[in-house]
Amino acid sequence: MPTPDPLDSFHVALEARHLSELTFAEVRRALQALSSVYVERRDRMAEGAVFDGAGKRAAFALYYGPMHFLLVREIARALGPSAKTCRRILDLGCGTGTAGAAWALECGPRTRVEAVDRNGWAVAETRWTLARFRLDGRAIRADAATWPLPKPPAGILAAFTVNELEEGARSRLLPRLLDAGRSGSTVLVVEPISRRVTPWWPAWAEAFGAAGGHEDEWRVRPALPPRLALLGKAAGLDARELTGRSLVLPA
Q: How does pLDDT run across 110-142, given as a tens digit for each residue?
């Protein structure tokens, strides 16, 4: 008998958490608005538009959070042993904490997660995520771009985070990540596949390659929790294929 996917029960609990005061239709409309911010109105992201209002927060938690979990889990599995030996993971710009949780679950139950985000709601949601997955860790409200990186060996994750940083902060973060990788930590950067939202990507890919890392492009079709698939379809989003790009510095 196949082992149940922990994401299934997690998403059921997410719905109970976020649909207690919102209807499915309200979350669907909020997800459409949130998608518009990501694709067409990215200038509003610096203003906090992603988590602006209960509807968008619920939409992010119920849709983008699980999708980030699925993509990062697929990447961690594909990277093999080098990505599964971490006993401490730092999740920079954690959002709802699902990406860091996905990597930690692949590393084993003793893996500790430290998550950082500048948004207070995201930090609270990450604490709930870690508790729900029974992962040891903490979430802190702080600037992901300047938070101290852990001593190696560790896993350092920046999933859908670097594209939201200001140019100066992004430039300062790159050499810190490279130094961490050279010192023995595994560094994983995950971003959307669209080059329009990541014009800085070629320079980062070149720097990672020079440091012994590699760049990958992902197109995966994981099984989705039924209500996750339904929400994406209702909002007009194609959730059948997950796409993304990654940069990796293996330990």
A: 899 999 999 999 999 999 999 999 999 999 999
DSSP letters, 45-98, are: GGGTGGG-SHHHHHHIIIIIHHHHHHHHHHHHHHHGGGGS--SEEEEET-TTSH
Distances (CA, A) of 203 to 27, 162, 176, 190: 37, 13, 15, 15
Q: How far is CA 218 from CA 130, 230, 242, in A?
A: 26, 23, 8
Integer Cα distance of 227 and 239 in angstroms: 12
Element (H, E) at 249: strand 242-249
Going from the C-alpha of 201 to that of each of 164, 179, 207, 216, 235, the distances in angstroms are: 13, 18, 10, 12, 29
Structure tokens at 166: 């200001």
pTM value surpassing 0.85: yes
